[in-house]
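Postdoc handover notes: sequence design on the structure in folder B. Input tokens:
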């Protein structure tokens, strides 16, 4: 019969410091299946950056083109003003052309200066070196004008680069979004598969809310980070390299000034990362604890209300919420310091660049457009450095989440030493010197031995904590033995695979488990390939057919998420029908009638009697009147069998433990 989810009390494990390198390496290996789209997205991001870093240079050239026109107009007006009364620029150009033999339309300011002599012709002495050649080559025959066409061409080129860069960025974002979702899908799928592979003892140490946190918050953090940070990381690295090349091409002096500022930025980034790392890890831990508390309180909200535990529940949540808020506040505050500090350092760089750049424009070969481009490049240069800080913060959160997820995925799985399944299982079960404890230092079953023949009806009785339920858990191999062995048809159960062996077992528990689906599908959970006719037949054997047909929709009636739209007794009958459909050779009934009324108990007992026909049955019961007809009764006390026999034999033992239990119930 398929395994059903089991729940128990769990304790929160201590959070270990994040192993950044190992977890990051494991995350990278996990991404290998998506290496092709990641590489393509990286190439698109690099191409987009290469195009983008050319835009400031183009806009700087446009500025220089406009400024050249302005200076030429000013020089032309100054030359024209200096001419003698009645003289015109056309006349001067004609005179110089006649003397030199040049075409009048080719006469330049340089020709005029040569004609006048250096002492009278230094009209360009205050013009920056960058624009001096353009001024000296200015034509005298026609007044200069702005080269608007050249400016428009440059702006069109910049617009085209911006558009292409935007398309490339869209492409890489689209690819990385797909990669992030595929990885999220794989992580959730692997977590879901892992849940059924872990031994029960693992869930004794962790809260169910923690596992839910792995599936929701941690996977979402990884997905969001991969979607955003990967592209930002590649873009930042490419931008820094490309911008450095462009900055050196403009001025090595200004570039060195910018590079002096960079170590300060990196030092700040590393300091904040180091300070905030432990707080991001603590934030995820506290988030998991808060989720676990919410899940537990929601699942037990009726009990909480019944015992007026709302205030305690609220106080517990307030405590966890405050701890989460405190951890989140510290991590977010430290990461929030990054941006303003980076802006402060960046602004200092702008001030120094403007001052030194102004001197270079006045005395050197730089133009105003170069300074404009350089300042834009500095902004582009500082932006990825600031991005590195944000990326590192995000990466820390990602690695903290990934460590929790991989810690779960890497947990030791339930080992399966055997292979195959029992052939023609008869149902002979033997416990031989069984020794077991949930922990090595607390052995609760010390030496348990008994042989149960095929088709026998065996009852296990004893006080609470005697080890009754533990015995059937061991029989189902939910836990491994500390000593001894359990045999099925004369063969050690460890020689069978767990799945193969469990197919021969069926369980009906006190805690019924039904999921939100139709009654038909809940019964079919016992054997997923069963037909509708087989489901109906199983329900009739389990005495459930009558009440099912009274429900709206009959077998198609949908049980809600809490399974509280049918009664406890009806739920128990459905679990019996499920076991009937599974047709097991060995049947386990664990307090199956303890939570129902007497009338329903009789109905359930009738259904169980049909179910137990021809099967080896283990019945755990506190109501000893229900197991008087058992072929063998195993009386347990403190983990050991203290008495064995049928009801009559055990009642004949003077001062016997079973006799005391029985008489105590009917005293």
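Designed sequence:
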């Amino acid at each position: 019969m398929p395994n059903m989810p089991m729940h128990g009390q769990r304790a929160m494990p201590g959070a270990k410091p994040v192993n950044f390198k190992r977890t990051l390496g494991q995350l990278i290996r996990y991404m290998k299946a998506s290496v092709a789209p990641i590489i393509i997205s990286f190439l698109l991001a690099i191409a987009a950056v290469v195009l983008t870093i050319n835009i400031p240079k183009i806009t700087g050239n446009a500025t220089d083109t406009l400024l050249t026109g302005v200076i030429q107009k000013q020089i032309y007006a100054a030359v024209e003003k200096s001419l003698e009364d009645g003289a015109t620029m056309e006349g001067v150009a004609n005179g110089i052309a006649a003397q030199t033999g040049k075409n009048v339309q080719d006469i330049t300011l340089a020709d005029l200066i040569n004609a006048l002599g250096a002492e009278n012709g230094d009209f360009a002495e205050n013009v920056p070196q960058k624009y001096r050649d353009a001024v000296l080559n200015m034509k005298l025959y026609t007044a200069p004008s702005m080269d608007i066409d050249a400016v428009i061409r440059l702006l069109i080129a910049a617009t085209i680069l911006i558009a292409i860069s935007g398309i490339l960025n869209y492409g890489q974002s689209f690819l990385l979004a797909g990669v992030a979702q595929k990885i999220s899908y794989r992580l959730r799928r692997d977590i879901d598969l892992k849940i059924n592979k872990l031994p029960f003892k693992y869930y004794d140490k962790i809260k169910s809310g923690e596992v839910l946190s792995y599936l929701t918050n941690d996977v979402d953090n990884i997905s969001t980070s991969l979607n955003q940070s990967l592209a930002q990381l590649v873009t930042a690295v490419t931008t820094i390299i490309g911008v450095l090349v462009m900055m050196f091409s403009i001025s090595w002096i200004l570039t060195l000034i910018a590079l002096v500022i960079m170590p300060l930025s990196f030092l700040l980034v590393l300091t904040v990362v180091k300070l905030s790392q432990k707080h991001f890890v603590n934030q995820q831990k506290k988030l998991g604890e808060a989720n676990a508390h919410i899940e537990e309180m929601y699942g037990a909200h009726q009990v909480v209300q019944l015992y007026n535990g709302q205030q305690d529940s609220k106080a517990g949540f307030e405590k966890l919420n405050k701890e989460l808020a405190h951890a989140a506040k510290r991590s977010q505050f430290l990461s929030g310091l990054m941006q303003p500090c980076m802006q402060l350092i960046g602004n200092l760089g702008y001030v120094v660049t403007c001052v030194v750049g102004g001197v270079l424009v006045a005395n050197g070969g730089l133009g105003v457009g170069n300074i404009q481009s350089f300042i834009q490049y500095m902004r582009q240069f500082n932006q990825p450095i600031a991005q590195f800080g944000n990326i590192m913060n995000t990466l820390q959160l990602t690695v903290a989440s990934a460590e929790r997820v991989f810690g779960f995925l890497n947990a030791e799985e339930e080992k399966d030493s055997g292979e195959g399944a029992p052939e023609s299982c008869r149902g002979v079960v033997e416990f031989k010197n069984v020794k077991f404890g949930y922990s090595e230092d607390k052995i609760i079953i010390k030496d348990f031995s008994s042989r149960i023949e095929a088709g026998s009806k065996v009852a296990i009785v004893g006080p609470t904590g005697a080890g009754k339920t533990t015995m059937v858990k061991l029989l189902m191999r939910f836990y491994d033995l500390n000593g001894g062995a359990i045999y099925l048809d004369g063969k050690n159960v460890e020689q069978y695979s767990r799945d193969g062996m469990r197919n021969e077992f069926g369980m009906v528990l006190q805690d019924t488990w039904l999921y939100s689906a139709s009654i038909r599908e809940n019964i079919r959970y016992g054997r997923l390939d069963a037909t509708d006719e087989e489901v109906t037949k199983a329900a009739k054997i389990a005495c459930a057919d009558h009440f099912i047909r009274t429900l709206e929709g009959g077998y198609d009636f949908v049980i809600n998420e809490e399974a509280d739209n049918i009664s406890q007794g009806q739920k128990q009958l459905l679990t019996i029908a499920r076991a009937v459909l599974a047709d097991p050779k060995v049947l386990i009934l664990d307090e199956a009638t303890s939570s129902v009324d007497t009338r329903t108990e009789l109905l359930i007992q009738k259904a169980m009697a049909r179910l137990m026909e021809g099967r080896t049955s283990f019945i755990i019961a506190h109501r000893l009147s229900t197991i008087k007809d058992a072929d063998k009764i195993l009386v347990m006390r403190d983990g050991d069998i203290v008495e064995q026999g049928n009801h009559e034999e055990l009642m004949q033992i003077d001062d016997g433990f079973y006799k005391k239990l029985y008489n105590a119930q009917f005293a």
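Context for whoever picks this up: The beta strands are 429-436, 445-452, 457-461, 483-488, 491-492, 505-509, 586-590, 616-620, 632-637, 640-645. Don't rerun without checking with the PI first.
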